Amino acid sequence: MNQDRIRVQTEDFGVEEETNKIKQSSKRIGGIVTFLGAARDFSKGQEINKMFFDHYPGMAEKKLADIREQALKDYDIIDVTIIHRVGDISIGDNIVLIIVGAEHRKDAFRACSWCIDELKRITPIWKKETTPDGIVWVEEHP
Amino acid sequence: MVKVKFFAVLKGLVGKEEVTVDLGGETTLEQLIEKLKTDLPPLKDIIQKGGILISVNQEVVEKDAIIQDGDEIAFLPPFAGG
Fold this sequence. Notes:
The structure holds two protein chains of two kinds.
Chain A: H1 2-5, E1 6-9, H2 15-25, E2 31-38, E3 42-43, E4 46-47, E5 50-55, H3 59-74, E6 79-85, E7 87-90, E8 94-102, H4 105-122, E9 125-131, E10 134-137
Parallel strand pairs in A: 1-6
Antiparallel strand pairs in A: 2-8, 3-4, 5-7, 5-9, 6-8, 9-10
Chain B: E1 2-6, H1 9-14, E2 18-21, E3 27-28, H2 29-39, H3 42-49, E4 53-56, E5 59-60, E6 66-67, E7 72-76
Parallel strand pairs in B: 1-7
Antiparallel strand pairs in B: 1-2, 3-6, 4-5, 4-7
């Protein structure tokens, strides 16, 4: 199950499909919180035409699995899915999906927020943006 | 021999995705970095600028880490996922 819950992939993911997998994992789940990150066309005052995500194969998946395991330990939650896309991403496309299922909403919200912050902090994934002025690798990402 | 990988912006700056280095036995990461600075001059400025993490076998380590034949070292620019 864990391999399906942690994925780094070029292809898009289905939010409803992944949500149903979490919902079906336990009848105790009463609250599901989803974070969906999408590619926006504007950043730091500049228009973005498209983006590309590079990653460290193996290490990126391992860090996402570590985040999932830690969240399951530290929060009163039942299941977590973390999926990150890599490669070429068009404006408006999905980038990252985090789904947390818990008995109650508060833990699901807190764990989901922690997971995306931790993903940004420790996962070896990098973003290159194409703007009208050229191509830049993003160094800061709040 | 150790494998050294460069990702994202570093690939372009260093001009390589991966190099293989003969260590001549067990050494520290710091010694490897010194050797790489000579072999790959752009790396000197990159390291001086700061913000680069280094991993050994996919775990981020400090510069005094011991490395040995067969290890996989990677230079990791600031992460920007999500």
